[in-house]
Amino acid sequence: IGTDCVPPAQCGCTLEGRYYLAGETFWEGEDCQRFCHCDAFTHEVHCSNSSCGPGERCGTLKGILGCHPLVPSTCQILGQSQYITFDGKTYDFPGTCKYIFSELCGSLESLPFFRVEVKKEYRSNTPISVFSEVLVLINGTEIHLRRKNPGLIEVGLS
């Protein structure tokens, strides 16, 4: 299916006449009743009964059927030690540590794994801690932002 030739090992799967890439995951059914995965080795689609979680609804967003949050939310870092969580609570984390700022909680097949870590160090010759590094991990890819290299974003595999 398609116009490009690929080695058989790179072929995807078809379900009800629709082609899916090897490793692709997707929702099936108008109400997101099944969550499916195109097996990269067998080239077969495997589905399991599923449904959207609390605070989500099934629908099409940007052309993709899936479970989407009813109310989008954000978390923030303000200044050097103040954090606002997804539920709007404020916390202070002074000192020099590595913190997990945000990560996927539990095992939700419909969402890719992600984690955001922040590392703090003391600013030279002061008792003030500053962010020295932010690390974003998503689907096996690492994105590094380092204070010592402003404007440089390092991307690699974890």
UniProtKB/TrEMBL annotation:
Compartments, record wording: Secreted
Alphabetized PANTHER family for the sequence: CROSSVEINLESS 2, VWFD DOMAIN-CONTAINING PROTEIN
Protein's UniProt name: VWFD domain-containing protein
Gene Ontology cellular-component annotations: extracellular region
Domain VWFD, chain residue ranges per copy: 73-158
Key words of the record: Secreted, Signal
Organism classification: Eukaryota, Metazoa, Chordata, Craniata, Vertebrata
UniProt cross-references to InterPro entries, sorted A to Z: Kielin_Chordin-BMP_Reg, TILa_dom, VWF_dom, VWF_type-D
Major site of localization recorded for this protein: secreted
Pfam families documented for this protein: TILa, VWD
Example GO biological process: positive regulation of BMP signaling pathway
